[in-house]
Every structure is written in structure tokens, then in C-alpha cells.
Write a structure and sequence with these properties.
Blueprint (H helix, E strand, L loop, with lengths): L2 E7 L8 H11 L4 E4 L17 H15 L3 E6 L9 E3 L5 E5 L1 H4 L9 H21 L18 H10 L1
Parallel strand pairs: 1-2, 1-3, 3-5
Antiparallel strand pairs: 4-5
């Protein structure tokens, strides 16, 4: 059974309980074993706009993944990611980074708890990892590649503004 470690990156909103996310994920499926890892406090500096690259945070996660002997590390950060990504997978298909910032921007009409948002992002990216491993695909996290759409959210938004 593949082991997935969920790790807090920096400080997070107090309402987000990553241990609870891991417990719920274990109760609702039998393919993966989810465990909660110790937080990574020092992330390095974001760019001038406060954004992080998935690749840079993925490097921190890869070190932790190797130390914990897990198959996949999932880092959750309360900062925006490059290209306004909700989440991303590193080039090795071993690490997932999820940003809580897009959740905060969801309209009030979308009434889901932040824990559910994190679970959906984890599920989507674990499927991405399985697909990419099966098809020998390794791409930079900021590049859109199979099985995802061809354009990032920010590029799509800019194209819509031009019309």
C-alpha cells in the first residue's frame, strides 16, 4: 500500500487540521495509507509577489519524503503558487504542493470546508501521479501536461480579458 505523508509548509490557518485530513482519507479508501508529518517551518523566500514555485517547495518535500520512507509527500502552504496554481506535482512525480490561497478566493456560494478542498486536490494530484508514472511523463510543475488541460488558470484568465 503506497504511503502518503501530508506536511504543513509554513504556518496555516488554524481551522485546517491536516491530521484530521489524513484520518478521513484513511477511512474513505483502502488504496493509500495517509500519515501526518512534522511541519516544515522554513520555506525560503517567495518571489516579490509572495509566490512560491512548486519546484522549490517540492525540493523541501523530497528531502522529507526520503527521510520518512514514504511514496508521496504532500505539502500544504498558505501562500500563492506561480501561475495561480491550486496545486502541482514535481518533475519526479513524488511530491505534491497544494496552496490554500485559491480556496480563500472561492465565492461564498461555494460552501465546502477547507479540509474537503485539500482532499480533492490530493485525490486529483494522486491520480495525476499515477497517470504520469504509467506513461513515463515528467514535466516541470508549472507546465500543463497530461492528464490536465493545456493552459494554466492565469493564462486562461488573461486570454479571456483580451476578448
Amino acid at each position: 500500500m503506497p504511503r502518503v505523508q501530508i506536511i504543513q509548509l509554513g504556518s496555516l490557518t488554524p481551522s485546517l487540521n491536516l491530521k484530521g485530513v489524513a484520518r478521513f482519507a484513511n477511512k474513505t479508501q483502502t488504496h493509500f495509507q495517509f500519515i501526518s508529518g512534522d511541519p516544515i517551518e522554513h520555506l525560503g523566500d517567495p518571489d516579490d509577489e509572495g509566490k512560491y514555485k512548486v519546484r522549490d517547495l517540492g525540493t523541501l518535500l523530497e528531502t522529507r519524503r526520503n527521510q520518512g520512507s514514504v511514496d508521496v509527500a504532500v505539502g500544504v502552504v498558505d501562500s500563492p503558487l506561480y501561475y495561480e496554481l491550486f496545486s502541482g506535482v514535481d518533475t519526479t512525480n513524488n511530491n505534491i504542493v497544494i496552496s490554500t490561497v485559491p480556496f480563500e478566493e472561492l465565492p461564498a456560494a461555494v460552501k465546502i470546508p477547507i479540509d474537503a478542498y485539500i482532499l480533492v486536490e490530493i485525490a486529483a494530484q494522486l491520480l495525476t501521479i499515477e497517470y504520469r508514472r504509467q506513461n513515463n511523463i515528467g514535466v516541470e510543475p508549472e507546465e500543463c501536461a497530461s492528464p490536465w488541460h493545456g493552459k494554466t488558470r492565469s493564462l486562461s484568465f488573461r486570454l479571456l480579458q483580451r476578448t
